[in-house]
Amino acid sequence: MFMVFLVLDNPDQLEAVLQAWEGAGIRGATIVESTGIHRQLKRMIPMRYLFQTGGSEEVGHLTLFAIVETQEQVNACLQATESVTGDLDGPNTGVFAAWPLTTVKGLPPQEG
Fold first, then answer.
1. What residue spans define the domains of the chain?
2. Is the domain 2-100 a CATH 3.55.10.10 member?
3. Burial environment of residue 109 by CB neighbours within 10 A (0 to 12, 13 to 18, 19 or more)
4. pTM (two decimals)
5. Per-residue pLDDT tens for 43-72?
6. How far apart are CA 112 and CA 104, in angstroms?
7. Burial call 19-44: b when 16+ CB within 10 Å, e when fewer
């Protein structure tokens, strides 16, 4: 089993990413609103300094977590993600990571 982690830079892409993941066989995901250190520090700048940059209406990220069974599913999830976001090595797209899990409990049995 593997944990898949995606920080999605553009929240408007969420539905498309979820549909792509579903098409890749990902059975479920947890979605959390999140922000990074750069955006958090930017929020801490006094408002008088933000006037010239358009204010502090910047939207945060969404972070998705999914547990998948195989490395092939990890690869399919990455490919599905980049079909929506474009190459994640590009700016303002997101961050994808996956790692093996030693213990998983509480998942429903896989259908099929």
1. 2-100
2. no
3. exposed
4. 0.79
5. 555 555 555 554 445 567 899 999 999 999
6. 20
7. ebbeebebeebebeeeeeeeeeeeee
